[in-house]
Amino acid sequence: GIQVEQSPPDLILQEGANSTLRCNFSDSVNNLQWFHQNPWGQLINLFYIPSGTKQNGRLSATTVATERYSLLYISSSQTTDSGVYFCAVGGAQGAQKLVFGQGTRLTINP
Amino acid sequence: ETGVTQSPTHLIKTRGQQVTLRCSSQSGHNTVSWYQQALGQGPQFIFQYYREEENGRGNFPPRFSGLQFPNYSSELNVNALELDDSALYLCASSRSYNEQFFGPGTRLTVL
Predict the structure, then answer these.
(1) Which of A5, A91, B17, B49 sits at 20 to 30 Å (Cα–Cα) from B98?
(2) B59 in contact with A at a CB cutoff of 8 Å?
(3) What is the mean pLDDT of chain B?
(4) For residue A13, what is the DSSP state?
């Protein structure tokens, strides 16, 4: 099955810094989503981005499907950006299950 | 538009018992997927229901079973609970093979 690898596993930054989170996947996908998991466990949808580039405020994402990776950019980080960020992909065939990476834990210090 | 809801929020059971978790899908969505998230891990796919039929299953034993109802809500049943079943159980809904939206989860503790 598809393998998903996220890097870095942990990232500690000061408020105001910019960050880039990476997601590599091992096969063709027709679904790629980025999530932020809040302290209570809820997965918050950030982007649905199987290909191309999208922006939403301070966040943007790019997926290069032909090279099997996606990047999540966070600019001017705030303490509320802290948490775990997951990349999840859905394969091109069969049930539209999402395969999750292990996540990147982002800590933004004031 | 109402989001995905799950009940209960927390649950404590003992080993060997059975548990039923419930999920109401987002309005207009016909597909429900269930995931298990152990502490410190990413969510793992359990199974998916599309129009009341199981439409794919992950690497989970048969004691994990489910249902989808005509209104597209869903249940996850786990029999003969084991300590390792302690986890956050997440339900997601979608319109067929599209973006999935997650509920707040049910935290299950097995003692």
Answers:
(1) A5
(2) no
(3) 94
(4) E
